[in-house]
Design goal:
heterodimer; A: alpha/beta; TIM Barrel; five-stranded parallel sheet; globular; B: 308 residues; alpha/beta; Rossmann fold
Amino acid sequence: MTAYLIRNVSVVGAEPTDLLIRDGVVAATGAELDAPDATVVDGAGLVALPGLVDLHTHLREPGREDAETVESGSRAAALGGYTAVCAMANTSPVADTAGVVEQVWRLGREAGLVDVQPIGAVTVGLAGERLAELGAMADSAARVRIFSDDGHCVADPLLMRRALEYVKAFDGIIAQHAEEPRLTEGAQMHEGEVSTRLGLTGWPAVAEEAIIARDVLLAEHVGSRLHVCHVSTAGSVEVLRQAKARGVRVTAEVTPHHLLLTDVAVSGRSELASPALANNWSPAESYDPVFKVNPPLRTAADVTALRAALAEGVIDIVATDHAPHAVEDKECEWAYARPGMLGLETALSIALEVLGPQWDLIAERMSRAPARIAGLDSHGLDPAPGVPANLTLVDPAARRVIEPAELASRSRNTPYARMTLPGRIVATFLRGEPTVLDGKAVK
Amino acid sequence: MIRHLLSGGDVDADTATLILDTATEMATVAGREVKKLPALRGRTVVNLFYEDSTRTRISFEAAAKRLSADVINFSAKGSSVAKGESLKDTALTLQAMGADAVVVRHPASGAPHRLANWVDGSVVNAGDGTHEHPTQALLDAYTMRSRLGRLAGLHVAVVGDVLHSRVARSNVLLLSTLGAKVTLVGPPTLIPVDIAQALAPGIGVSYDLDAVLPNVDVVMMLRVQRERMNDSYFPSAREYARRYGLDVPRMRRLPEHAIVMHPGPMNRGMEIAPEVADSPRSTIVEQVANGVSVRMAVLYLLLGGNNL
């Protein structure tokens, strides 16, 4: 196993030091380390972070290998600085049995670029009618601890209560896609000024907030752990703030796109997302389904509230909701397009854009806290002697223009096309082995 | 002149006035024995209709033919579209056939905007989902100007299912541009959120039709789909008609000069009583005739026709 000596790197924003990686762990830190056998990596100007952990990734395999595979998604993750991703259950077949979660887990091991931790479905076929065999998935080789019907809400309050209670037996957690189904029938985008102008059926903020409010009460009642996926509204933040103040065991995530983009993007006026594009606006750029996502892009006031909640800790983590889609599922009418955006390869850049170089906060929200929630013991640990060498090196001074065709994902549906974003991942190490070097995937 | 006509908001006051003035010229053609101009000879206009709308399609067809354009009717039924061809592939096919203009009716809001990315010719929105129907707004404005002599300063009430109405959105945008005041009237469930911020700051909203009627120059009744009842927008068709239908007693509340409009097709007895629809105040039949003239003007101006 090759040893790596990273010279003069800032560990989570601290004064530069050398970092020796050997036998899968950080062997030593300090100035002027001596390791003649090690491959030297120049870390000057770079920041070392614990490898990022994504609690919300769609890898599309099995079923939609034309949009993404476990391998291509793993490569995208490594290039984005991730060492672990949690793979959502809405594949085809659905990951609602031990067999399917083990298949995904095994494909992740074979790809060997990040640790792929499968998430199990809460209900059979994501249908919201009866519980899937949660215990069998927990006991499988994949050791599932997070369960989610993501894409669908576990809307039935009794079923949600039972799920929350049942997974206590193996310290599981229910990750809820909070969307009241009756309030969002036919919904196409955030209900507000822009949906009214564009004549698209609205997805009201209250449809998310009502479910979160119900679920925190249920979790409180049965004393279980609840995780709220992709929080998108200022009202949801207030519900979470109150629940956390009462001591409810709830955690929450926000996506990079909900931290940066607003519903104005749907009208084709992209100046809010990027001043560089403001002068090129034309009506034909409106209704571009690359901006279609669920929950939808919200208002500037929501973005402000989400950023504050993330800084404050009311929202615990950034999760990508990386959702690859084939070209034909996006190059069509808005109403017929599938919702979702790529996220793995741009998440850290968005975090830098939104939070600035607050490295400890970024490490907490993108690595340590998600690793804790998912129970991934060997991830989310700051590089220090004896710690598993799951880490990534960031060049914060770099700026890059996002070109969809250059992404490692099989799909191209990034909302940041042609935008200039800060930061670049230079290298990523998984258990001491490089998965990315010089900004390129090793395999 | 603009390249596409996708929204009532695409035209400024000068352009809108140019279209209406051109339509006045076009209307004289309808009175001639030979109802045809050579302006668009050799140009191809495609009517691409993903929804059944015989009245709009034949209006555009008549308009294009009176300008001597070649017209291709491409209906979603019985064509490759029914076999699952994507909008983009259909667009590329039309592009390859050399369509100079594509008139599109589509159930999905924004479909004409997507289409405009894939064809070089002009795209005319002939109604997209619950979004807009700009030529309807132009023909409505033309009708108001013909009857009342002006648009600036008029007070227009638009009554009914504003939430799902493409006619309402286009009318609000165009009438505001032309200096008319618009008041939207309907049950609160059918008035979209943030409508003034979304469309035009000066528009009013009222839930009380009787209070609005004495102060308007134009009342435009929108079609109400009976299936809205199943979605609890209002309790029953009868209750809707009692509260928001334009019947004879309500019509008497209008000022002497005020006109009654409806884009059609009407639900007689629901949003409009038959006696009102057939009264001298009603412009409903005129609107249809004016539709051809206005669409001639739009096609003529978009395609840069000459030899008028």
